[in-house]
Design brief:
The structure is a single chain. With 236 residues, this protein is an alpha+beta fold. The chain has seven helices and six strands, in the order αααββααβαββαβ.
């Protein structure tokens, strides 16, 4: 490869990394422009170095050299960066899996450009954009209702009472208390109840609620329930 061809490859890798970084940046994800561009360009550079080393240093006598040996190490090495953006929050929710996958994908794009597969790399970028932005929205619209729900964590402080079962029925709209509410699609997925020293009861709920339902609506819905002292709502 000539110097011009190598610089073109590095530039193309830079722009491919830029496209992925912009998508993550717009969504405020833990993966930005600088990270994806550096990963993509560096992967392209290592691939070019690996291929060029074979052509420059292999001889008719000694040709026992693998031109993709360095490239193979990129795939495993970048995995450590991907692990760094996977976060486990205090509520046991794991985030950053898509960003970690795109870090690994950016290295794959760099390798493809380094080898010279420009058309294939461009097509893969388009597939990535579809997979992250377009296809999930389409599937949610035409798929089952469960795909249009989100997880909501609710922490309640309750007055001492023996009507906890009635509370769960009320949340799911099975009693008259909330018959007039617009949204009746909340489902209780997990319940944790704990007694505290002041005889109050702490109730932690994991709910499935419609995506278009505001968190404030859920908050005021629980504030209307009898025996509820305080409410804490978090969108997971």
């Amino acid at each position: 490869m000539t110097h011009t061809e190598i610089m073109v490859k590095l530039t193309v890798a830079l722009f491919f990394g830029l496209f992925i970084g912009i998508d993550r940046q717009l969504k405020h994800k833990p993966l930005g422009l600088k990270t994806t561009m550096i990963i993509c360009v560096a992967s392209c550079l290592v691939t070019v170095v690996s291929i060029e080393s074979f052509h420059r240093f292999a001889t008719p006598v000694f040709r026992n050299m693998d031109p993709m040996r360095l490239t193979a190490q990129i795939v495993s090495g970048v995995g450590f960066l991907g692990a760094g953006v996977i976060l486990r929050r205090s509520n046991d929710v794991i985030t950053g899996l898509t960003s970690a996958a795109l870090i690994w994908a950016a290295s794959g794009l760099g390798i493809a450009v380094g080898v010279g597969l420009y058309v294939e790399a461009t097509y893969v970028v388009m597939l990535f954009i579809l997979a992250v932005n377009v296809i999930p929205s389409v599937v949610k619209k035409v798929g089952p209702q469960q795909l249009r729900q989100r997880d909501v964590s609710v922490k309640l402080v309750m007055e001492p009472n023996t009507k906890m079962t009635d509370l769960l029925k009320t949340i799911e709209g099975k009693t008259r208390t909330l018959k007039k509410e617009k949204r009746q699609l909340i489902t209780v997925r997990n319940v944790k109840i704990k007694d505290v020293s002041d005889e109050a009861q702490h109730v932690n709920l994991l709910l499935s609620a419609p995506e278009d339902q505001y968190t404030t609506e859920i908050y005021y819905l629980f504030k209307k329930i009898e025996h509820v002292v305080s409410v804490e709502v978090e969108h997971l």
